[in-house]
Amino acid sequence: MNQIIAEFIGTMLLVLLGNGVVANVLLQDTKGHAGGWIVITLGWGLGVFVGVAVAGPVSGAHINPAVTIGLAVTGLFPWGSVVPFIIAQLLGGAAGAFLVWVFYFHHFNRTMDPAVKLACYSTGPAIRRPVNNLVSEIIGTFVLIFVILYISEPVMDLGDGQQVKMGMGTLGALPVALLVTAIGLSLGGTTGYAINPARDLGPRVMHAILPMNHKGGSDWPYAWIPVAGPVAGALIAAVVYLVHQWMVG
To answer: Which fold is adopted by the domain 2-248?
Structure first.
């Protein structure tokens, strides 16, 4: 239960700070208005830093269903804990998005563009081409999971003296923050680099239910891509890892 709570809190902080920086840059009359892409990617990277720093010592800091699934496929995380972890992450993402709404409430009301408001909750394509958008999410998530699998070191003790790789916390908060920042700067220009279903789906649900003026739709026809893409990218990274381990083992 402590691990589940840690995943909830870590994902909540990730989305609060990540979507918070998007709101700060995009919404009207904020101090950070028009800060630009570098501010957004740096804010997301630091949001990852905070989420990993908080959840890492307890759960390993998955804070991302793609990480949980990738680790389970490689045998580094028990399948029985996958669903509880993912539920906690989705709820944490929704809670973080709710806090962004509370924090920037008056700025949301002053912003008339529905697309800008949606961007403060979920990702969207710069050019809407579903196949290309899906490939972008697959590649971005592949890089994330691939690096986690190959660079991380065991940190979690299972109680019998065995330690296993558990999540992004095994990289350390700063390296994984730099990794996510690099992905955003280099690979974020097409879809906004969700690379995390909890970062997109939970906040998109909150966008749909929270009261806002001039809100517009939540773009549900696109919503499957930030979920399927990261899951597919994680599965590919896990398979590559397992094949390599088999070849060298």
So the answer is: Glycerol uptake facilitator protein (1.20.1080)
